[in-house]
Amino acid sequence: MAKSKKNVSLLIPLFNEQEVLPLLVTEIEKFRVERPEISEIIFINDGSSDKTVVRVLELTTSLEGYKLVSFSKNFGHQLAVTAGLDLVTTDAVIIMDADLQDPLEVAGKMIDEWKKGYDVVYGIRESREGETYFKRITAKAFYRFFKWLTDLDIPLDTGDFRLLSRPVIQAYQQLNEQQPFVRGLVSWLGFNQTGIHYHREKRKAGNTKYPLSKMLRLATHAVTSFSDKPLRIATHLGVSVSMLAVVGIIWVFYARLILDTAVPGWASSLVIILFLGGVQMLFLGLIGVYLSRIYAEVKQRPRYIIKDVWQSGEKKKHISDEV
Questions:
Q1: 3 belongs to a structural domain
Q2: 292 domain residue, yes or no
Q3: CB 3.0 to 4.6 Å from 305: which of 17, 72, 216, 272, for a disulfide?
Q4: How far apart are alpha carbons 202 and 136 in whole angstroms?
């Protein structure tokens, strides 16, 4: 007889989210009334420097099922999600951000799909309110470029907002990548997956924690985690440029020895030299990115350090350390 599906956790990374926390906890408690399956809420404090921890304690001490896990420093969103997945004990987990851009009502629909037999239920963003045109267009371009580069069947226009069943959680826990790209790894794991289309709302409070620099870093990690195609493209382009260079050398000798004319123009020579130098530097940088990933993996350092774990109903010690 199959085990009944009863308990679901909410996994929410936090990084300087003191402004949105009162609204977030209020919305979660309303949602729990409608969906009693939510038995656990795990907050991962990813090295916040504001009063995020203090706010969590103030808002949830008298409530049931809340857990606050604090990192020793900021390790990043993807490792915060990974730490939460290592700690989840329920039948399923829903990964979501603290800013309430991903509606809890969609989380309820994910639970319904999970009960139908799906192991992964991800949210597909039909629209992205409150985001600039540049961010929307670059996000769309990234997912399509990533899919072409990696040949990985990752759903387009999705984030980390998704439900994972216990078998998927256990499979993810077997992975040990130092720089995980969660949505890519979940797609790579397989299992029975489906998506739910929804309208992504604007952030309820506070500022985005993913500026352009972090987006570019995440995109680099994503591509280099799942594909060596950039290296193969670099090889093919390098061979092509070398062949063109050989043709150019032959033409120079032909013009000088057969036609008895010198090749005029220092500018053209300079352009060729700069072009070849630029291509070489580009490829060296690309190789360096892959080497840095190998370096990070072989060191085998802990992916994150947990400083403190607190559960609602317990007395918090050393609150001043978190302020």
A1: no
A2: yes
A3: 72
A4: 13
